[in-house]
Amino acid sequence: MENILADLCGTSPEDPVPVWIHGSVGHCFNQLTLNVAPHIILAVVSACFLGTPRYGADVPHRRDWRCRIAASFILAGLLLADIIPAAISQQELGPVYLEVLASGIAALTWLTHGLALLMLCRSIHSSTRGPAALALLTLLPIPSLIITLVWYCQNGTAWSPGHPAVSSRFSILCLQLACLLLYVISYLFPAANRQEFLSINNSWQPDPLISEPGIPASDWQGVAEDGESWLSRFSYAWMNPLMKRGYHWMLNRPQDVYVLPHHSPLAQEGVRLFSVLHSVFGLRFYSLGLLKLAGSLLGFSGPLLLNLLVNFMESRQEPLSHGVLYALGLFAGSFLGALLRNQFSYEVYKVMLMVRAAVISAIYRKTLRVSSTSLAHFTVGEIVNFMSTDTDRLVNFCPSFHEVWSLPFQFAITLYLLYQQVGVAFLGGLALALLLVPINKVIANRIMKCNKEMLKHKDSRVKVRGGWRKAPSSLHPQALCSCTLRTWQ
């Protein structure tokens, strides 16, 4: 472990992470302990809020929430931009690998934190400032930034013309502190939450009894620029009635504005199921990929630490503290990996349940609203399959989506680790995996064909059972009475 830290920090193995150097805090200690560790804690806590359920579709975003979200994403962009001058400056401030590691982890942390804030501002926390613990954790990286800022000032390289890369990093550091200051101010001084209680049965303002001259009535609803002359189109004269209504504060309802033009693609394009699901559940579902990625990476830490532990037991040249660290790391990696994978599965199944409920409700509502003529194109069995089998197949896509990108990622890392252990012999495993692809394709096609045949028979079965249940209602009541009298006689 000392050798790894020494290579990362550019120090000696005897003291790989010096705490105090030349009257100031050691840069490696500052980056690993005061920068990387707090960002990892903030990332883990922020990831726990990615699955916060959404509260309604029209939750207003307050100004303080928008400022904090913008500050988080700007910080992520600044940290990614800091990697470029860090690679150029090489050893001006610290080893390039240490700088890239610290900036990369911090950028991923603030990106995760921004997504968590985006989920929180759409939840029941929108009327508050959000969890206090999450805001307090954002203050942990500030000491590291201040120590780095003091180091720049002491060395006099902040605005040195001979070190443009270092000057760029100093500018980025000042911008990071400004964003953190904006974040803190937005949290401490939130915007006033003005609540308006409106009735769905009333307009926002009562309609005037007498209309102003030149202003259409309140129930007027024109059609944009359709039918207007080319001069009106170029001068936007067709918007004059709308501007007059806005001047007199009469744009209070959807009926008070223009109708979309007939040639507008928005007026002709039908609503697609995928686009609706994407807009409602997309952000929450896609952000769960961060949990999947973290769980996969922790899963690979087990074999690596186990290899180090076996080498430690075989060589018996490393100190005992190394073996203890390997064992603790093996336990912590397995525990955290299992915890993140469990949370990922739980959140994915929650999304699956919401998607299933939304799709079934939409099908049921559509069945009740369409005309009998349109409904005659489908049998009862097909509608039942829409609400059961087809919905299940749609919902099962949720876990499969994250497997599509995670499996190639895990497979590539596995092949690389095999190459390090056995060399070129890993190609045998690669050839076997490639050989299984066409076999799985044939099996999948066969399963799909059998499922189609099964659904056809299922439709027929539901139709027959439905007819059998309706048959007794078609019997004449007089026949039933006759049978009853004969039984009594």
UniProtKB/TrEMBL annotation:
Keywords: ATP-binding, Membrane, Nucleotide-binding, Repeat, Translocase, Transmembrane, Transmembrane helix, Transport. The chain crosses the membrane at residues 36-57, 69-88, 100-120, 132-150, 170-189, 281-300, 320-340, 347-364, 418-439. Its EC number is 7.6.2.2. The keyword Disulfide bond does not apply. It catalyses: ATP + H2O + xenobioticSide 1 = ADP + phosphate + xenobioticSide 2. Signal peptide: none annotated. Residues 290-464 form the ABC transmembrane type-1 domain. GO terms for cellular component: membrane. GO terms for molecular function: ABC-type xenobiotic transporter activity; ATP binding. The keyword Translocase applies. Belongs to the ABC transporter superfamily. ABCC family. Conjugate transporter (TC 3.A.1.208) subfamily. This is ABC-type xenobiotic transporter. It comes from Apteryx owenii (Little spotted kiwi).
